[in-house]
Design brief:
It comes from Companilactobacillus ginsenosidimutans. InterPro entries: NA-bd_OB-fold (IPR012340), Ribos_protein_bS1-like (IPR050437), Ribosomal_protein_S1-like (IPR035104), S1_domain (IPR003029). One of its GO terms (molecular function) is mRNA binding. By secondary structure, the chain is α+β, with helices and mostly antiparallel strands. The protein contains two helices and five strands, in the order βββαββα. Strands 1-2-3-5-4 form a five-stranded mixed beta barrel. It is elongated and about 80 Å long.
Length: 121
């Protein structure tokens, strides 16, 4: 077994911090709550039961104590975040107004700011 291997196993324990998986090669590993799925995990015991068959990826093997870190999330092919439904523009590009509406009032904004700076307000 090495990091990156995709293995099969069965859920052998459920804790608030993750799920223990007994792998087919006889080794037990932990899928930390952060590696269960993309997004927020509400209730581990609601989603996983002891004896469930799962496919996991080996994320890390601690060479000193032999603990194996596993991931279910690494096998999920989901995009994070909300899809972009409509692209927003700061100008009305359909009317081709662009910078011209700002250019008309820019000098008055600059003059007003300079007056405030000069008067110390």
């Amino acid at each position: 077994m090495k990091i990156g291997d995709k293995l099969s196993g069965k859920v052998s324990g459920i804790q608030p911090y993750g799920v223990f998986v007994s792998l087919d090669n006889g080794i037990q590993g932990l899928v930390h709550i952060s590696e269960l799925k993309n997004g927020f995990v509400t209730g581990i015991a609601d989603e996983y039961k002891i004896g469930d068959k799962v496919k996991v990826v080996v994320m890390d093997i601690d060479e000193y104590n032999g603990k194996v870190s596993l991931s279910l999330r690494a096998l999920q092919n989901r995009k994070l975040g909300r899809p972009i439904l409509h692209k927003h523009f700061w100008t009305n590009y359909k009317n081709e107004i662009g910078y011209s509406s700002i250019a008309k009032v820019k000098q008055s904004w600059v003059d007003d700011a300079m007056d405030r700076i000069g008067s110390g307000k």
